[in-house]
Specification:
The protein is α/β, with parallel strands linked by helices. About 50% of the residues lie in helices and about 10% in strands. Helix 1 packs antiparallel against helix 16.
């Protein structure tokens, strides 16, 4: 087994924040907007919204570690820490919010009662928090007592060691961190951070009546911050759940306006992914005692470039190849390198080779398709069948790239092949509005990219995202759409190539010869 690849696998495994606690501080690359994210508006929580695998949990854990370096107490809560029990499915939002507020306050009490560095409690207060662990509480007057205890505690701004924080978060200036903290303070000069991760897991977001439970959590966090100015809260939420909250006809869509300006959307660029991968490669090089090199890839990969059978430019740098296949999700990039390294070790290769890519990519690509299905199943149960339908399609302007007219013609007739439900609507064939609805959905979930020419960019083009232009795909914008090439995201192309091979060669098995008479 290659010692190089064994060490590499230390830094490339599942890509989950929980599994990388040992080296997350070293490997984490702070985003350019780090200071903006931690600038929490007074009396309101900051919402950190991103796709699964985009780095939300990693950000919160890194932030916790850096704040604790400066002596700022931080409470990190996950769904398993919060006992949010709802008896019925038809509870009002007000009732749900009160239950959620009680559950969060109890969870805070349990955490503090367990001992949080930087927080000192009086004996009586500590006893009450200890009771929260063992006996629990539900009475409103008890909740108010807990709130009164929480209100004055925390760290004073004057005692924060900003130099230690900035030292741990390399590249972030001390002034920026000071400004971020000052902007979140009101009258209270003592504070602590409350981080709530994976908030959507307190409910089943696929069920519309459960969406109100998530709303109640957001409203409860805001209510707690209004009563306790010293609590500064950051809440993470999956992107697809946020979109469901905005779309829910039967829920609390009017609340979106109240929280929209509190949201930060975590959407790493290709360059961000490249930095994350390069940092981990460098850490592996350091563990091997190798001198730092300008190109860390050559230590673990056999060539400078990798051959891409699914693109016009046949060869790409490894860094470009990995980032393009990552769907703007660091976890995908980490798992791709992990799979390549594992395959290379199974083959007893010293480094990752072209043959490892050929073997892994169809598997990796289908895994991304299955991930996409899990994320969007409640909106469109037939999403995998829709993706499969692109197999065999004639791409009229390039590799896996369609013109606007070809895209429309294909989507307009797709419902003739099988039944498609989208947002509970059964799509009709040859229906213009339904074709555009499906088109917009495929763009929104990242299966279809909108590509426009741009000589300023590295490859001479750029992609228009839904956030950049949410109304792009519409009948009214048809003239604008004519200037755009519609390409299948690289992460899904190898799956379609696999389908094509299976269709042409019968899953790779030779056909039986006909017997002559």
């Amino acid at each position: 087994m290659s010692d190089k690849l064994k060490v590499l696998s230390t830094y490339f495994d599942t890509g989950t924040a929980e599994g990388e606690v040992a080296f997350l501080d070293e490997a984490f690359i702070p985003l350019d907007d780090y200071v903006d994210i931690i600038s929490i508006p007074p009396f309101n929580p900051r919402l950190l919204i991103g796709k699964k695998g985009s780095g939300k949990s990693a950000f919160l854990r890194f932030f916790k570690s850096q704040m604790e370096l400066g002596g700022i107490p931080v409470l990190f809560l996950r769904p398993k820490d919060i006992q949010f029990e709802v008896s019925g499915s038809n509870e009002s939002l007000g009732t749900l919010t009160r239950l959620a507020e009680n559950a969060i306050i109890k969870a805070i009490g349990v955490k503090i009662g367990s001992g949080i560095e930087g927080l000192t409690l009086r004996d009586g207060d500590a006893k009450l928090f200890e009771l929260a662990k063992t006996e629990g509480y539900n009475e409103q007057d008890t909740v108010q007592k807990i709130l009164k205890i929480l209100a004055p505690i925390g760290q004073a701004v004057t005692k924060i060691d900003f130099e230690k924080i900035a030292g741990g978060a390399k590249g972030i200036p001390i002034k920026g961190i000071k400004k971020a903290i000052d902007s979140s303070l009101s009258k209270s000069k003592q504070f602590f951070y409350l981080l709530i991760d994976d908030t959507d897991q307190v409910a089943t977001p696929d069920k519309s009546d459960h969406l109100n439970r998530i709303w109640s959590f957001l409203l409860a966090a805001r209510a707690i911050m209004e009563e306790c100015e010293n609590i500064k809260c950051i809440i993470s939420l999956r992107d697809e759940v946020w979109k469901r909250l905005k779309r829910d006809e039967a829920g609390q869509r009017d609340q979106v306006d109240h929280f929209r300006n509190l949201a930060y959307f975590l959407n790493p660029s290709d360059r961000d992914i490249e930095k994350i991968i390069e940092k981990r490669l460098l850490l592996a090089c350091n563990d091997l005692g190798l001198v730092e090199s300008e190109d860390v890839y050559k230590v673990f990969f056999d060539t400078k470039h990798v051959r891409i059978p699914t693109a016009e430019e046949q060869y790409r740098y490894w860094s470009d190849f990995i980032s393009k296949r990552s769907r703007q999700r660091p976890r995908d990039g980490i798992q791709l390198v992990a799979s390549l390294a594992k395959r290379a070790m199974q083959q007893k290769n010293e480094v990752i080779q072209a043959g490892d890519v050929e073997y892994i990519m169809p598997i990796y690509s289908e895994e991304r398709v299955d991930d996409l299905k899990r994320e969007t199943d409640s909106e469109c149960p037939e999403i995998k069948e829709i993706i499969r339908a692109f197999d065999g399609l004639t791409f009229d302007i390039g590799s896996f790239t369609l013109s606007p007219n070809a895209t429309y013609s294909f989507l307009e007739t797709l419902p003739t092949r099988f039944s498609i439900k989208l947002f509970s609507i059964t799509l009709k064939p040859n229906d213009r509005d339904h074709a555009f609805l499906l088109w917009r959905f495929l763009h929104e979930i990242g299966f279809l990219n909108a590509r426009v020419t741009d000589s300023r960019e590295k490859h001479g083009y750029r992609h228009i995202t839904v956030d950049e232009d949410p109304e792009l795909i519409s009948v009214a914008r048809w003239n604008d759409m004519q200037k755009i090439a519609w390409e299948i995201h690289p992460a899904y192309r190898d799956y379609l190539i696999k389908l094509q091979k299976e269709r042409n060669f019968g899953f790779g098995l030779p056909k039986k010869p006909k017997k002559s008479r």
